[in-house]
Amino acid sequence: MYHPQNRISTRSMKRRDFLWLASVSTLGLVSGCAVNPVTGERQFMLMSESGEISLDQKHSPHQFSADYGEVQDSNLNSYLDRKGKDLAAITHRPDMPYSFRCVNATNVNAYAFPGGSIATTRGILLEMENEAELDALLGHEIAHVNARHTAARMSRAIMAQALLAGASLYLESQQEDYAAVAAGLGAVATGALLASYSRANEREADELGMQYMTDAGMNPQGMVGLMDVLQGVNSRKPSAIERMFSTHPMSQERYDTARYRAENEYAHARDFPVHRERYMDNTADLRRMRGAIEDMQEGEEHMGRQRFHEAEDSFSRALSQAPEDYAALVLMSKCQLALNRPQRARNFSDRAVRVYPQEAQAHHISGVAAMDLGRYDAALEGFRRYEDMLPGNPNTIFLKAVCLEGMGRKSDSAGEYERFLHSSGAGEKADYARKRLQEWGYMDSSDE
Ligand SMILES: [Zn+2]
């Protein structure tokens, strides 16, 4: 029997990321050099703009779902989208297909995909206090897109990989995400895309972000405030910011630099507005949920340390304040899976599906819980729904195959195992799939 909590899903995911990275080289390869849109200098670049966009479109929906989808508060999303697009319009690459949203995740984070799909979490929006800080954050993320940091890094990675013939050192930096493993989803497929930027990239994004936000008429103190906010969160609740640090290393240096620039290079903008009221108005509903969100942050910290009973208490408190919160329901469901209580897990994931049926993750967890209960038909249904919304996760294909096997539908199961092997050729799950196909006579043992 395959256990979803088993570590193999993470390990095989690393392999999958490796394969995906390899497949990138056929996606948007251009000649080895391009002119950087920001600096005007030639840079080593193997990825075309259309390559950046298709990579973004393929992977960003998986990350947004891992972060519990866009918030259902359409006012908040359209506020962010408007702010982001106004800002992006005056940058070096105004024609990229930008989109901005707030995702339901409660950690303190923001990130950009190379085609311009940008997200902030509920956690980081709660920490900021005015539009100048928000513009600083969005400007920083837009800057990563403008300076093509992801594409340049991936070009170097593709090259390193070609040189080292399959070296996977690039992927070793990926962190295990226990919750994702419990959900049977594997580590987020986009880990490699969102891996750490270099310090030089961060400095450049800070510098450009400040330029963009002041060009938009915002007070440069917003960048100083943002750096201050992030440092404050870091000392107050370090675990909440962990991911932010992994994608955006923070340091005193960045705060000092922002302050110096605001007082010198951007002194002319010192009387520009920060628009505190506008920010407070647009985030009022979110701020009313602060208590529940802080309980979720605490619960996730417990989950990360595998203190599942403490996590359960935190998620209970969150749900008593916000009984319909999708992220809280999904987190509680994952916690119940980790506590080996599949029936309770399923109750919570079913409630999550009811409050946000368009979001994929709860369907998957519901499937995992049903599988643990031995209800393969119900599990299969959950995985099918997930795949309809978010195709391309090999873990889901594998779990479907296991369900079909459990139902005695050998030929259907074999079809899914084959499909799994096609998308993910190595690791323990692949070995398992291959063994089954050989036993059932669908694959010759010499096929390997
Ligand atoms: Zn950054």
From TrEMBL:
PANTHER family (alphabetical): METALLOENDOPEPTIDASE OMA1, METALLOENDOPEPTIDASE OMA1, MITOCHONDRIAL
Gene Ontology MF: a single term: metal ion binding
Residue ranges of domain Peptidase M48 in the record: 77-261
Keyword Disulfide bond: no
Database matches in Gene3D superfamilies: Metalloproteases ('zincins'), catalytic domain (3.30.2010.10), Tetratricopeptide repeat domain (1.25.40.10)
Pfam families tied to this protein: Peptidase_M48, TPR_19
Co-factor(s): Zn(2+)
InterPro entries noted in UniProt: Mito/Outer_Membr_Metalloprot, Peptidase_M48, TPR-like_helical_dom_sf, TPR_rpt
Source species: Desulfonatronospira thiodismutans ASO3-1
The entry's keywords: Hydrolase, Metal-binding, Metalloprotease, Protease, TPR repeat, Zinc
Repeat (TPR) residue spans along the chain: 360-393
Tagged with keyword Protease: yes
Entries under PROSITE patterns matching the protein: PROKAR_LIPOPROTEIN, TPR
Gene Ontology cellular component terms for the protein in this record: membrane
A single BP term in Gene Ontology: proteolysis involved in protein catabolic process
Name of the protein described by the UniProt record: Peptidase M48 Ste24p
